[in-house]
Amino acid sequence: xxxxxxxxxxxxxxxxxxxVADLATYxxxxxxxxxxxxxxxxxxxxxTRFRLPEVAREENLLTALEMVNASxxxxxxxxxx
Length: 81
What we know:
- The protein has 81 residues and is mostly helical.
- It has one domain.
- Helix content is 53%, strand content 7%.
- A two-stranded antiparallel ribbon has the order 1-2.
- The two termini are 18 Å apart.
- The model has no long low-confidence stretch (mean pLDDT 79).
């Protein structure tokens, strides 16, 4: 999923590793087990949402949902692994 942050059309790539390292310096983020995800402090989440204009919030929500859907392509009722 993190690779998708770097591959969005029309958007400059994000240095995810550096961003997480910077936030981790202040205990505001950390990699989850096995380095497959990021856990962000709720303060960072709230400030990020607060500073975004409404249109950007909606766009980011849609992007996040598309990333989740791409990561889990099976139907939600399909419980097989």
